[in-house]
Design brief:
Structural class: alpha+beta
Shape: globular
Oligomer: single chain
Number of helices: 12
Helix content: 25-40%
Strand content: 15-25%
Amino acid sequence: MSVISQHLRIINKGNPTLLFIFLFLLGTLFSCYKEVDITPDMPNELLFINGKEVFFDNDQMMALYPIPAYGTLVGTITCNNDYSFKMDGAEIADGTDYRFEIPDKDKAYLLSITSAEGETKVYNLKFTTLPLIQLTDQYSSVPKEDYIPAILKLNDPNRDSEQTEYITIKVHGDTSSRRKKKSYGFNIQTDDHYHQTKSTSLLGMYHYPSWILDAAYVDKSMVRNRISFDLWNEIQKENPSGERNTLFSATQGYFVEVIENGKYAGVYCLCENINETLLNEDNNLTSDNGIRCLYKSGGWSSGTRLTNYSDTSSHSATWGMWQQKYPSPDSMTLWKPLYDYVKFVSDASDQSFSSNIGQYMVLDQASDLYIFLNLLMASDNLGKNLFMTQKKSENAFYVCPWDLDATWGRDWDGKKTNTGEIISFNLYDRLLEINPDHFNAKLSARWFSLRLSILTGENFSKLFNHYETQLTVSGAAEREKERWPNSFNDLETEDKYITQWINQRIAVLDNYFATLKLAP
């Protein structure tokens, strides 16, 4: 007899009312409990080269294997003994040393795999210089609302062994859920019970439990978001004399190719999340040097545009399209710091704003963000797609940009944008109009200082060429174009457009910031 059954008999003998209360509480308990179901099976491992698995696309009959560079690869073959294998028509057995000649991305080997029942499948074995990720789950598609269990295998060409992790995964972002190619967010689990997250390093990045696979579906170059984050961190680090108050807040990320449930899913950027650990400069959160709070603006509202506000009596995890990220709203809600900031920017008199804005916003960093958003024409970040954070040692907010694919000459639908508009929202409208502590002149000086070092055509070309070369040389650009023909553009064509757009945009901003220098 179960323990629950024993308790039911005892309670029923004593008091029927207690029995009713017990059953009610028991039903409430089980209705609130949510167990991860449909645990995925470990994917079938067919073939290894030098101890690293070959991943298979059963839709296009393609096999992929990562290598650090093109040339000659002598690989020890490990075979699944339930099958027989041929490479370019020659039998290969378990333990065979095979010499691969791989001069470039176009080289492919004909790989035949025959089961014990006599069924033969023929794959084109291709090689990539990008890391590979294989996702396996037991669902027809990854949902938007709830995390599902999955298995992630990561094959890095620069490491000797593959990495296998149990994860929970769901679609990342409202806009992404409406796209054919979707972005994913996933949390790494301690084991196949999927009950607890753990922090793990992927591709040499810092240890985090939560990660993003960015699809970059509307970005015809795929690199805008990644380049924007790299550039933002360069701007924040351009502080040689240490006189500026800045915050290194951009995530790291690496392009990978993904195979999902036996089908090639395309090129993704595996990247970190902005969280309290990332924003702490020495990665050592303590009560003395950790951050105080972290909020994210999840949409357009008067609260995110800093023009109006509602009360903060609610203990919800959201307020006025803001989301509390740290501390966890499950443990406590802490809206007062953000409420005070929004209220001040919205309501303060010009005199009070001029005297006190420095108590609410780190102006050095705010001026960097204004330059950054205007350089990129990041209209989707004017209140939306921003993180706000405070360090424990001070009350003023730092602001961190997020979701920067609608930049560099294209909007959130992938349409081309003009180069002549100056973009702003209420915080900067007031800063530029009231001009506290000569904000305009300092902003102009910062622009022209950055133009001598980071914001140059040479640096922009270096950033774009770095990632575009990765996608092209690896063959990933061609595979992405074949998989998603309506999204991805020819990289050479898109590069010419971006270069032309940047040159025109820089000329507009040089003129604009020169006029600010003369502002009263």
